[in-house]
């Protein structure tokens, strides 16, 4: 199968994620969309690695996963504490530095 | 011998330091200390003079290099002294008259609790004035020039509790500043033209400089002289300077400091000789001032202000003579010296009268004082005869020579200048006779003041009358001593040069007409003030009299032209500052404020709008990269 198709899929996933980040208000959903964009990037890395016949892309994909895992931990913690403070997970409600 | 010159300046300077830093514990003896230092300086002057007389006329100049003041590559300012016949004349006049006036002040300032400070300032003045005349370069001369200005300011405003004295001091300081600016510009011009400002090199190389440059330097020096010597148009301060104690008027504002301008012009003679236009300007200033001062002197009822007008007028004569070139330099200095005697004597006499009259200065409230103060009357009378040019006395010899030299300038200029000088002699005789008659003759006109204190005119103590007597002797004999056999001219000739003038009429005719106009002036004054009683309240008088009482409208002129003009200038500058300069500054600030107000809207705190910016930015970057690659 032509690896370019994977790139199309990656672009589609990235666009869906970006659109989600822009239009959804719920912090959890926005967060999931960010994850979707990260995974779209991973897919593109792996596809490129396959196309160029070397392993660089695959190694970068592993790095991305590690970073994404760390980010999930921090991000979810922030979302939970914001929710506790405001009783809302809407990103638009948290538009000020103070409560 | 050279080392004594520095000592000459240092003695009064030390005196000033001791008196001004010594504090109250010197109050009891301060006047003696001050007088001792002044006298020490006079003794040194006499020693140097005796030494100078022992040498041949060409080798009389003493030079002393003291230290290098500002040594910079291409700019050498030295502190050095030059004592030649011209400086020597001034040294003797300054220290001699200065010492006498110190002695006089012991009596005059007896009841003043700040007498020690007064003597400190007088010593400071002597030091600065001596520095001015013995400096060997223009920069050091400038130091002395400013020093005498400072001393003059301090002494005019000595009775600073009187607002009029404080104002007069400020006025003198400010007007002098205009002249001082002229001197500093002249020094800068000299430096750019000659590369130095030492007397020797500058005055010997005038031939190398263009006439235009020399004229500019000459005019700036003239401006300086106008400021210091109260010549038109910078004359307005001298009348007000009479607010100072009378010994100050006698020493600074009659005998010595105000003649510094004449010294400057005569010292810079080589520059003026090579710049006829500047020289003409000097004569014009002199001729105008001698008439101006004489007219003012005729209308004043304040005895000191009448004498101040007279000082202005007599210095006008000296400046006129100094503008005539080598035919006049020696006579300018000769008149300066004789004037130093008789005008100092007249001022001391006026001070003695005031001392006996409860500090009354209005001559209309004097009258008949000759019976009460005979010594003052005689010394003042001899000074009076000297200044009007009574044959045989000092003024006769010196003034007559100046009038002769003015006629000798030749052509229409000669007739105009000579005529002005002759007219001035007539007016001098008029106003001095007026002062004499109003003060010492006629009926007594003084009244008890508002507290019921009637003045009890009495002769002043010996400490005051002896200096007056000495000066009166000088007023009588100095002229004959200097004039007969051209002794003074021969003395100064190696420094200033001398040429015999050739007046279009014979010298005898000039002399006779001088005496004739003097008699006419005295006659007019006698008819006006001698034969009729003098009214205690001044009559309204003619338009000219009223103008002359207001110093020929000099203050009004200054007010309208300079003060108002200055106000308009500053107001328009403020307007430009407010509209243009502030407009640019405030406009920039407002623009920045508006822009940042807009930019602030981007920082709205909504995470999603930041995301839009990020995505938009990334899209733009990618598009740009692609575009660049395509191109």
Task: List its salient traits.
heterodimer, A: 99 residues, mainly alpha, Helix Hairpins, 0% strand, elongated, B: 631 residues, two-stranded antiparallel ribbon, 24 helices, 72% helix, globular, NADH_UbQ_OxRdtase_chain4L/K (chain A)
Alpha-carbon distance between the two ends of chain A: 54 Å
Give the low-confidence spans of chain B. none
**Percent in helix of chain B:** over 70%
String of helices and strands of chain A = HHH
The percent of residues in helical segments of chain A reads: over 70%
Query: Which architecture of chain A would the CATH scheme give at its second level?
Result: Orthogonal Bundle
Q: What's the total count of β strands of chain B?
A: 2
Question: Count of helices of chain A?
Answer: 3
What percent of residues of chain A are in strands?
A: under 5%
**Overall 3D shape of chain A:** elongated
Unreliable stretches of chain A: none
The major β-sheet of chain A equals: none
Q: Strand arrangement, largest sheet of chain B?
A: 1-2
The geometry of chain B reads as globular
- Termini gap of chain B: 94 Å
Give the class of chain A from helix and strand content and strand pairing: mainly alpha
* Largest sheet geometry of chain B: 2 strands, antiparallel
The tally of domains of chain A stands at 1
User: Which CATH class of chain A is shown?
Assistant: Mainly Alpha
Structural class of chain B: mainly alpha
């Amino acid at each position: 199968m032509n690896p370019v198709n994977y790139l199309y899929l990656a672009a589609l996933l990235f666009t869906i994620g970006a659109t989600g980040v822009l239009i959804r208000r719920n912090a959890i959903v926005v967060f999931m969309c960010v994850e979707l964009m990260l995974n779209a990037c991973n897919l593109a890395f792996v596809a490129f690695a396959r196309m160029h016949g070397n392993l660089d892309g695959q190694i970068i994909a592993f790095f991305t996963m590690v970073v994404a895992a760390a980010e999930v931990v921090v991000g979810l913690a922030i979302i939970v504490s914001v929710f506790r403070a405001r009783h809302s997970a809407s990103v638009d409600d948290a538009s000020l530095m103070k409560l | 011998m050279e080392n004594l010159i520095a000592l000459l300046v240092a003695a009064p300077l030390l005196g000033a330091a001791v008196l001004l830093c010594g504090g109250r514990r010197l109050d009891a003896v301060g006047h003696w200390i001050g007088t001792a230092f002044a006298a020490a300086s006079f003794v040194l002057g006499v020693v140097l003079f005796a030494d100078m007389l022992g040498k041949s006329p060409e080798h009389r100049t003493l030079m002393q290099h003291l230290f290098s003041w500002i040594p910079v590559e291409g700019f050498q300012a030295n502190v050095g002294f030059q004592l030649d016949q011209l400086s020597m004349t001034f040294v003797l006049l300054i220290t001699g008259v200065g010492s006498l006036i110190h002695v006089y002040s012991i009596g005059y300032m007896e009841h003043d609790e700040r007498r020690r400070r007064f003597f400190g300032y007088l010593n400071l003045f002597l030091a600065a004035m001596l520095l001015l005349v013995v400096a060997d370069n223009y920069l050091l001369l400038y130091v002395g020039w400013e020093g005498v200005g400072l001393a003059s300011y301090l002494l005019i405003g000595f009775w600073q509790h009187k607002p009029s004295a404080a104002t007069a001091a400020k006025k003198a300081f400010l007007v002098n500043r205009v002249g001082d600016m002229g001197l500093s510009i002249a020094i800068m011009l000299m430096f750019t033209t000659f590369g130095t400002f030492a007397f020797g090199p500058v005055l010997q190389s005038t031939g190398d400089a263009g006439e235009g440059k020399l004229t500019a330097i000459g005019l700036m020096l003239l401006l300086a002289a106008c400021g210091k010597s109260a010549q038109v148009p910078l004359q307005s301060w001298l009348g007000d300077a009479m607010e100072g104690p009378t010994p100050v008027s006698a020493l600074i504002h009659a005998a010595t400091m105000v003649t510094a301008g004449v010294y400057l012009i005569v010292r810079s003679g080589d520059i003026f000789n090579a710049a006829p236009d500047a020289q003409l300007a000097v004569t014009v200033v002199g001729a105008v001032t001698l008439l101006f001062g004489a007219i003012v002197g005729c209308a004043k009822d304040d005895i000191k202000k009448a004498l101040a007008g007279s000082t202005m007028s007599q210095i006008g004569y000296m400046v006129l003579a100094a503008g005539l070139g080598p035919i006049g330099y020696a006579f300018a200095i000769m008149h300066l010296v004789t004037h130093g005697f008789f005008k100092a004597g007249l001022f001391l006499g006026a001070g003695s009268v005031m001392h006996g009259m409860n500090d009354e200065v209005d001559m209309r409230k004097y009258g008949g004082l000759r019976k009460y103060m005979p010594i003052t009357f005689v010394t003042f009378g001899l000074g009076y005869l000297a200044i009007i040019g009574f044959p045989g006395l000092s003024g006769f010899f010196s003034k007559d020579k100046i009038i002769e030299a003015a006629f000798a300038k030749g052509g229409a200029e000669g007739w105009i200048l000579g005529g002005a000088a002759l007219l001035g002699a007539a007016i001098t005789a008029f106003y001095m006779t007026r002062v004499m008659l109003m003060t010492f003759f006629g009926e007594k006109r003084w009244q008890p003041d508002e507290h019921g204190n009637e003045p009890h005119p009495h002769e002043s103590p010996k400490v005051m009358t002896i200096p007056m007597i000495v000066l009166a002797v000088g007023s009588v004999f100095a002229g004959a001593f200097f004039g007969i056999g051209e002794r003074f001219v021969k003395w100064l000739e190696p420094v200033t040069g001398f040429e015999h003038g050739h007046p279009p009429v014979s010298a005898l005719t000039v002399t006779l007409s001088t005496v004739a106009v003097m008699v006419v002036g005295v006659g007019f004054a006698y008819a006006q003030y001698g034969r009729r009683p003098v009214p205690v309240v001044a009559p309204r008088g003619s338009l000219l009299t009223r103008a002359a009482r207001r110093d020929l409208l000099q203050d009004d002129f200054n007010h309208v032209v300079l003060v108002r003009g200055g106000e308009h200038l500053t107001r328009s500058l403020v307007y430009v500052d407010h509209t243009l300069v502030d407009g640019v500054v405030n406009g920039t600030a407002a623009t920045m404020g508006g822009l940042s107000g807009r930019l602030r809207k981007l920082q709205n705190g909504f995470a999603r709008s930041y995301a839009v910016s990020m995505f938009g930015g990334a899209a733009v970057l990618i598009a740009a990269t692609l575009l660049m690659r395509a191109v």
